[in-house]
Every structure is written in structure tokens, then in C-alpha cells.
Amino acid sequence: MSLVTLLPFIVLIGAMFLMTRSAKKKQQAAAQMRNDMQPGSGVRTIGGMYATVKEVNEDTVLLDAGPGIDLLFAKNAIGAVLSDDEYNRIVHGVEHDLKTDEAVVPDDASSLTETDEPADSSDDKPIDLGKKDAADETADDEPKKADDAELKKSDGESDAK
User: Fold this and answer.
1) Structural domain contains residue 22
2) Where along the chain is composition biased (Basic and acidic residues) (predicted)?
């Protein structure tokens, strides 16, 4: 047998070894995270429930899901141990603001102008925002005549026979 025929098998075995090794590392990290849980930590179960750790035993965890609601879970059912800031943000809606130097956005646009004086309101005539070309202004009389002719025919008369 030559090395060329054995090469695909060697590559396949090497890939399987690398995949199992990375999966084993993830399992060890998850087990370490579960072992490091302390009472008072915020957790998320694999089912998506958020609770506070009340008591940690060898294989089980007692969780406080709300006032007077204690639930007993297997340690393997804990999906993630959350930081205090993240737990408070998700469960209580409390944002811990680390950046206090951010600019404050005003409620109205008047404070964004450079002067505090009100705008000059001497030009009280309405502004025409329609588009008009020079050709449109000279041709304005012809459509009015056509409209008048149509109005005269609108009382029952029609051109169609």
C-alpha cells in the first residue's frame, strides 16, 4: 500500500480528533462555570428561564425565580451564569450606565440654534413650495380654457356618439 491511499484516512482521523478535542474543551468550560456558581448569582437555564441562585448542591441547584418561588434544577440544566449587570439589564430592565460623558440630546430643536432669539417673523405670507418652470407660467392660461370647456360639457353632453 502506498502513502497516497492512506493519506485520506489519516486526514479524516486527524479531523475527528480535532473536533472531539474542541467539543471536550467546551464541555469542561461549561462544567467549570457550573461549579463556580455562587448563591446570589443570576443564571439562565437551558430552557430560557432567568433566576437567582439560592443554594448550590453537588448535582442540583435551588433557584429563586420570584417572590416565594423556589425551583430545584439539575446543575446540567444551567445554560449560563450571568454577570450582575447583564442579569439586571435582562430581568429588571436596569441599564448600568458606564458612560456619563455622553452628550445630552435636547427635547426640542430650539436649543440647537446658535442664538436664543426667536426667528424673524416679518415675512408672514405663505411660501409656495410647488415646482414651476418658466414654460409652465406662460402655459397656465391654456389649461384653464380647456377646463372651462369640460365643465360646460359635464351637464350631460358628451363628445362620444
Assistant:
1) yes
2) 122-161
Indicate the number of domains in the chain: 1
- CA torsion 86-87-93-98 (nearest 10°) is -30
Residue 125 domain-assigned (yes or no):
no
Whether 134 is in a domain gets the answer no
Give the CATH number of the domain where residue 76 resides: 2.30.30
Q: Sorting pLDDT into bands at 50, 70 and 90, what band is 122?
A: low
Distances (CA, A) of 60 to 7, 71, 76, 154: 47, 10, 8, 87
pLDDT at 136: 55
% pLDDT > 70, the chain:
64
Please give the residue range of the domain that contains residue 49: 10-92
The two beta strands, 69-74 and 78-82, are unpaired
Cell of 125: 405670507
Q: What is the dihedral of CA 86, 92, 93, 96, to 10 degrees?
A: -50
- Residue 57 covered by a domain: yes
**Of 45, 46, 69, which is closest to residue 54 (Cα–Cα)?**
69
Three-state DSSP at 12 gives: helix
